[in-house]
Design brief:
CATH topology of the domain at 40-104: 434 Repressor (Amino-terminal Domain)
Distance between the termini: 44 Å
Order of helices and strands: HHHHHHH
CATH class of the domain at 40-104: Mainly Alpha
CATH superfamily of the domain at 40-104: lambda repressor-like DNA-binding domains
Helix content: 55-70%
Structural class: mainly alpha
Number of strands: 0
Radius of gyration: 15 Å
Oligomer: single chain
CATH architecture of the domain at 40-104: Orthogonal Bundle
Number of helices: 7
Shape: globular
Strand content: under 5%
């Protein structure tokens, strides 16, 4: 399957509202039929958590979500609900929101 990797990457990032590290490489691997393919939702969730330097356990606690659920989202076993992707996108753009959330729980 041939497609313009840069155009697809720009469209995905525009939809996500933020740059996504590793997206172009993942798209290249997908085009070659090699490597694991990650959904934009998986990338947003994992990259946001990593930018905040939180473990999966601490991030799950921060957003009041069971740890196995967060793991399933990051591994692509289940698709996260749109509200979770929205929350991660907001936190990714405004990391200070994580502090506000942390005040409501003890991370």
């Amino acid at each position: 399957m041939e497609f313009d990797i840069n155009a697809v990457a720009k469209a995905i990032e525009a939809d996500a509202g933020q740059p996504i590290d590793g997206l172009s490489q993942s798209l290249k691997e997908m085009q070659k039929g090699a490597g694991k393919v990650y959904t934009p939702e998986q990338i947003i969730i994992r990259e946001t958590r990593q930018r905040l330097k939180l473990t999966q356990a601490n991030m799950a606690k921060l957003i009041h979500t069971p740890l196995p659920t967060l793991r399933d989202w990051e591994q692509g076993k289940t698709k996260p609900p749109a509200v979770a992707v929205c929350l991660y996108s907001l936190i990714g753009k405004h990391p200070e929101l994580a502090n506000d959330l942390a005040e409501s729980v003890s991370v």
